[in-house]
Specification:
By secondary structure, the chain is an alpha+beta fold. About 20% of the residues lie in helices and about 35% in strands. It is built from six helices and 18 strands. The longest helix has 28 residues.
């Protein structure tokens, strides 16, 4: 039946009446068209986003390659939610997912789809590369990783940190709580406030770990330390091994404060009574880097005092990270 239908179509076209040599020539003309159609189909299928099942099939290879301390990155960036859903929390430890940047990590594991690359590490050396269906897994090596001696975010506990509100000669200690009420502002609200934190009096001031959104709306894990009006919020970390520099980031929820005209927050840093430097943060900067040289104190283990203040401004939001570099 199908053969009969093709015969009717062939005869209806009138080509059957042409000489055999002409018919063969016309058939050869169809080949470029078929090639173009095949190329178009290839481009369409290659550009089509991988399906959920393809992401899940990739998870075994990803988890086999994933190493602690080597964050997993996804390209293109918009595909990361699909990867997080398919690979689970094992592939995306929270401290790696919400890291400040890539500078201190010696390696990254890149999952590439649609031929995309993770742009911040495009210049890194490719240690290994493997194709998995429509994905490429690459281990990337940082050509010059920063070496960290001490991460302040890992020491926010009552054994290594004391916190107080200071106004002139008045010093109000902040007590550490393991059962403080967890608060999450929800859509358009405050960032989440953790259960374990230093609570400063009856007001909203506290020091603890949370996550903010940066100027690209990516998560950044940091130490929340928002100075209340009229007070300086003082943090003293004990036993900090100092090196060549202190490197950090300061910020707040960019979504909430991107149009703010509030006074800046100032972070003063000292060690054993010696001033190391200051960082003044403007809200419009988002999550912003800063660096202070400490080579004169390199090799010493000492207390480091952080003093945060915003003058007489109303309650100011502020979150930061800080690292002592070798």
């Amino acid at each position: 039946m199908a053969a009969a239908r093709r015969s009717v179509l062939w005869r209806g076209s009138g080509l059957w009446q042409a000489p055999a040599r002409v018919r063969k020539g016309l058939l050869w003309l169809l080949l470029p068209g078929l090639g173009v159609a095949e190329l178009a189909a290839h481009v369409w299928f290659a550009a089509r986003a991988p399906r959920e099942s393809e992401w899940r099939e990739l998870s075994r290879a990803v988890l086999r390659e994933k190493r602690p301390g080597e964050p997993l990155v996804v390209a293109p960036a918009w595909a990361e939610p699909f990867a997080r859903e398919a690979f689970g929390d094992r592939a995306f430890p929270f401290d790696e997912l919400a890291r400040s940047d890539d500078a201190t990590f010696p390696r990254l594991l890149e999952v590439s789809a649609l031929g995309a690359r993770y742009e911040p590490a495009r210049s890194w050396r490719v240690v290994s590369e493997a194709e998995h269906g429509r994905f490429t897994l690459r281990v990337l090596e940082n050509p010059a990783p920063l070496r960290v001696r001490y991460r302040f975010i890992e020491h926010v506990n009552p054994r290594e940190l004391t916190v107080a509100l200071v106004a002139g000669t008045q010093v109000l200690p902040c007590e550490f709580s393991e059962q403080a009420p967890v608060v999450a502002g929800g859509l358009h609200g405050e960032v989440a406030f953790p259960r374990e934190r230093f609570v400063c009096g009856a007001g909203p001031a506290f020091v603890g770990l949370t996550v903010i959104d940066d100027q690209r709306y990516e998560p950044r894990r940091c130490i929340w330390a928002a100075p209340p009006p009229g007070f300086t919020l003082r943090l003293v970390f004990s036993g900090v091994p100092l090196g060549s520099a202190l490197r950090g980031f300061g910020g707040l929820s960019y979504f909430l404060f991107r149009d703010s005209a509030a006074p800046p927050v100032t972070l003063d840093i000292a060690s054993e009574g010696v001033r190391l430097g200051s960082y003044v943060h403007q809200d419009a900067w988002g999550f912003h880097p800063f660096r202070l040289a400490t080579s004169a104190s390199a090799g010493r283990t000492a207390n480091v005092e952080l003093a945060l203040h915003a003058g007489g401004a109303p309650q100011r939001d502020f979150c930061f990270t800080l690292e002592a570099l070798e």
